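Bug #77: duplicate submission created two jobs. Keeping one. Sequence:
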Amino acid sequence: MGKAGNKTANKYLGIIDRSNEACKVAEGNAYTDKRKGVVLEMDISKSQARMLEKMLRQWRIEDKERENHMKPPLMSPDVLHTRDFSFSPIKSSHGIGDSGKLLLATRKSDRAERYLVKHEYCDCAVNEFVYTKLAHAMDIKTPEIKLFKISADEKRRCFKTEYVSAARFLHVTIENPLYSVIREQALNWQDFFRFAAMYEMFLESDSFEILLAGQYIYRIDVVDAFPYNDYTLRMAGVNKSMGTDNPQKAIRHEMLSRSYNDCWQAGKFEQRLQKLISNYGSVCETPFLEPFLRIQAVPNEYIDNFLHTLCYFYPDFIGDYFKLFIAALRRESAEYLATKK
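Kept job's structure:
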């Protein structure tokens, strides 16, 4: 149940072209995914790890260029171009978090237009983009997320991966406000309970972070949503033979052939609702149930359109995987609502 795919990705990270200098074994230095805490099946030095990541990135970019070659030019309001922005480091009050080092992007022609940029991991852009597009279609507040296309003439070396997301910068009033403050100050206070429903629906397991910005609360930092994380997504675009296998083909097969019906534990939605009721009373029941209904009404054409944009950045089959997941989520949500009648 829940998160999946790590074993498949781990298998290939452990056998990448061992004849390549970047992948030769160096005793005593395990290559670790710092965010997920996973030690891979080979030992390499820090410099070799950097070479490996650079090599993986280049392979992903080359394969994505081949996929995009037959497509029309990308025209989307969800896409920004790095040449139009200046970038500067930004420090969080909590230090470096699960999304790595952040950047602040400021549009050169309008310095009031700013975005919080994530670029160090391969799941930040895809998971937050899809989550936000679905949330907005359900009229639930999250910061607007766009995707940065790295311009052809870009010479700045400030992006660790080619997957760069941009969250609309918010002027924060209170970080992680108490419910009593939310109830008093937020016009959309009921979103607090809708956020809780989406946390379960979208398979989140990280911290439940909310911001109060002006008169509204926003759900932020949802990178950990959905079944697959950085560990799998950084290998999904690697269309190279490794040993007797190909990681992209194996991950594609896994994503598109599995059943997503087993992602949700039986009774988990109701358990979360009952816990909320015990803490906040019956006022939470209606807004908690609303996302399970609203996900049914998100137009398929809308989903196709934003996944079409996403697949100019990620392998095309990633869009197919999300369609399967969303279809399973709709079924699971409908079954849960049927128990509440």
